[in-house]
């Protein structure tokens, strides 16, 4: 599957960015005048208005190449919501979305924002265990995985994307750790996680994955959302304006099935 290209160091879009969600309902008008309306769960869509400034010829070429490969607005491609935390159930680590191995999780603990939404993740086994989630973003995509962590005593833990790992120090103060960059080249999915050493435990809060190189303010999630594999260009042409030698302005409209 083709995916909408990133620009710069891994951004999907530039500001200002427009996102408009549309819903559809099916209405039946009965003979007695009664009207019955029900939501059409498969009929909704999201429209994106992307406005790019100072695109290099290479960046513009990636967008126009996808436009050509998609035959304009005919064929679908993948797109990741630049606003979204792509993880599912970021505040419920008991959900099956999370791969926990032999880890234990206990919720309702104090967190760095003054609420009780942190989890204690414990590893009582004799080997390192990983708390992870697999997302349907391609390995070539730059993504940032971040989390707030703390432990009763100083130590280290790993934060991972696929085979890439960064070891981070952790201690009694809350700290936001992150790993940023691409995953496994050619892979259709990416696995992101925290590695907990044998016999240790750590508090975690605010787990977040974004398709950009740096973390933004944390956004809690329910069911996983934000990855749209049925996205098309919103029209049969895109607007490109040359603004300087080797630089262009481009306007793109996309439509994703919700």
Which stretches are poorly predicted, pLDDT < 50 over at least 5 residues? none
The average pLDDT score comes to 94
Q: How many beta-strand runs?
A: 17
Largest sheet: 6 strands, antiparallel
Shape: globular
CATH class of the largest domain: Mainly Beta
In angstroms, what separates the terminal alpha carbons?
18 Å
Task: Provide the gyration radius in Å.
Answer: 21 Å
Share of helical residues: under 10%
In CATH, the architecture of the largest domain is: Sandwich
Count of alpha and pi helical runs: 1
The name of the CATH superfamily of the largest domain reads: Galactose-binding domain-like
Explain what the structure shows:
Strands 1, 4, 5, 15, 16 and 17 form a six-stranded antiparallel beta sheet that branches. Strands 6-7-14-9-12 form a five-stranded antiparallel beta sheet, with no helix packed on it. It is mainly beta. The chain has two domains: 17-83 and 227-257, no CATH class; 104-210, Sandwich (Jelly Rolls). The mean pLDDT is 94. A hairpin with a 2-residue loop joins β10 and β11. It has one helix and 17 strands.
């Amino acid at each position: 599957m083709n995916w909408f290209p990133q620009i710069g160091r891994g951004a999907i879009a530039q500001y200002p960015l427009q996102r408009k969600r549309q819903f559809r309902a099916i209405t039946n008008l009965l003979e007695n005048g009664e009207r019955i309306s029900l939501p059409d769960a498969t009929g909704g869509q999201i429209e994106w208005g992307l406005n790019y400034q100072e695109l290099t010829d290479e960046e513009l070429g990636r967008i126009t190449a996808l436009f050509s490969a998609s035959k304009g607005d005919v064929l679908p491609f993948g797109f990741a919501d630049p606003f979204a935390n792509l993880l599912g159930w970021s505040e419920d680590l008991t959900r099956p979305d999370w791969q926990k191995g032999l880890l234990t999780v206990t919720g309702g603990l104090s967190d760095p924002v003054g609420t009780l939404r942190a989890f204690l993740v414990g590893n009582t086994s004799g080997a390192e265990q990983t708390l992870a989630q697999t997302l349907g973003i391609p390995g070539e995509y730059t993504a940032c995985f971040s989390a707030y962590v703390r432990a009763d005593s100083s130590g280290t833990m790993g934060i991972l994307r696929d085979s890439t790992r960064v070891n981070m120090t952790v201690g009694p103060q809350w700290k936001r750790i992150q790993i940023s960059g691409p995953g496994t080249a050619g892979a259709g999915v990416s696995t992101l996680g925290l590695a907990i050493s044998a016999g240790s435990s750590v508090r975690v809060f605010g787990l977040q994955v974004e398709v950009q190189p740096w973390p933004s303010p944390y956004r809690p999630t329910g069911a996983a959302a934000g990855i749209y594999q049925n996205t098309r260009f919103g029209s049969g042409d895109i607007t490109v304006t040359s603004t300087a030698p080797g630089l262009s302005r481009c306007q793109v409209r996309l439509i994703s099935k919700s």
